[in-house]
TrEMBL record:
The gene is cobJ. This is Precorrin-3B C(17)-methyltransferase. The keyword Methyltransferase applies. Its EC number is 2.1.1.131. Keywords: Cobalamin biosynthesis, Methyltransferase, S-adenosyl-L-methionine, Transferase.
Amino acid sequence: MAGMNMRKAPAIVILGAGSLATAQRIQQLYPQATLHGLRGRVEAVDSLYESFGETLRGLYQQDTPIIALCAAGIVIRTLASLLSEKDVEPPVLAVAEDGSAVVPLLGGLGGVNLMAREIGEALGVAPAITTSGELRFGTCLLNPPEGYTLADLEQGKRFVSDLLAGQSVRIEGDAPWLAQAQLPADAHAQRTIHVGYQARPDHRDELLIHSRSVLVAVSATQSDLTTEVRAALAEANIAEQALACLLASEQDMAAPALHQAARVLDVPLRFTAPADSLQSMVAHVVPEAQTLAVSNVVIAATPAPIEVAKVGRVRGRLAVIGLGPGAAELMVPAVKAELARAEDVLGYETYVRMAGPFRADQVLHCTDNREEMQRARHAFELAASGRSVVVVSSGDPGVFAMAAAVLEALHESSDPAWHRVDLEILPGVSASLATAAQAGAPLGHDFCVMSLSDNLKPWSIIEKRLDLAAQADLVLAFYNPISKSRPTQLGVALDIVRRHRQGQTPVVLGRDIGRPGQTLRVVTLAELQPEMVDMRTMVLIGSSLTCTFARDGGGQWVYTPRWYGEKP
Ligand code: SAH
């Protein structure tokens, strides 16, 4: 999201209970912030971590602003190895445990001094600001507020040194945020701060700041949209950095060409109802905009920066995500990122809770596990209205879970708004894979995955498939092996398997794998009793070649060799 000036919610990281009170005061200032505490030392935080170093580096790499309540030295040493990798870094601050000192460390261009001032004010202390330009002028000239962007950082640095060396300056254009700054102003100064959307040649005497006040309306049928937009801006002498967003008809919402252009130009894409011309589309969403150029695209500008969130509407998103078995380390990073951007979260209550913690602005829709189609339709309704929606499943969403229900709901729908939603399925570690990994490699050769639940399929087909899969000597992975309403079926299923497998066949039982209180048992098919299994258990039954051997430290390794027949 570079260039969009969106500040992510900060992370407040504490080491012990001694800093909890200060952390909570900072959290009142940034209600979106998540509070991270060291496991075993603190409770009542949003997230518990095991390793301070890994947590801090992870946050830094994800561009999350960091407020660490500990010695500045600890923060510096922890992040040191990463510092040279980044040209734009998130704000990083060290705050004394008792709130008596606020030290901005990194992220001068990401607004760290602004945060230091805000936190200093909330804690009643003066922030330790050391940036000379900032101290002298009361603002960082190189970090204009949202809606404005610096044309050239290097040129900006030279300009600020000139001012620090005693040059005076005047402002051309509208720079409301500089009204209270203590600049060495002089109406006849040679140096100027120029604010506007026009492209201008580099000039040593000028600090050029672009206002993001330009909008370009496009249609998806244009062949090379990015080139077209760039050419039109150049023709009209408008800086590309002044572009606030692209506007298109909502009929074209899913057109890849539009999304490609928005990605390359690094601007948001907004949509409005189709109209007879691009110009009337612009007039409809930004009535105050003045048309600057009309070609295959229409360029329009407003006097002040455009508030993109108010221009038409955004394309809604629906992500069907898999949480993995439970442990946070087994959740894929794409899923974590999706949860962070979600506005609405739908799912069975247990899984929604597992996906948390959530921020106060995120809406949770918890439903019963059986209302899958209804949940899928609700998700599309929300996403079609422009929301960013997440549907959660445990494990992988495509394995006996929500992804198929969501696609079925879409398949059945003739609502174009549903089909335009940005739909993505994000995988997770399925229970069979998580269980297998803990046992060794029981799924190391061909295997068959089945749900033993006959809620959505006839029992006769389950019997038939069990019989054929067992006959084919596939390793068997059973999901939903048993439940209170189906107490006897597992016994019947095992009878079928035993017709084809020997009594010493290894069986792995994984219960609550990746969750608190997880258990892993290895038994033989002869020993296996339905009472050893419940609905939170994964059952893996070996093939004729699956074998076990003692594991140093206790228990057994289970694996199925990669070859079949005679050992090669
Ligand atoms: N989508 C899920 C499966 C949902 S079906 C996945 O990919 O894992 C629910 C069944 O999965 C349960 O009855 C149980 O058999 C199995 N299961 C889910 N999570 C589990 C876990 N953490 N440990 C063991 N089995 C689990």
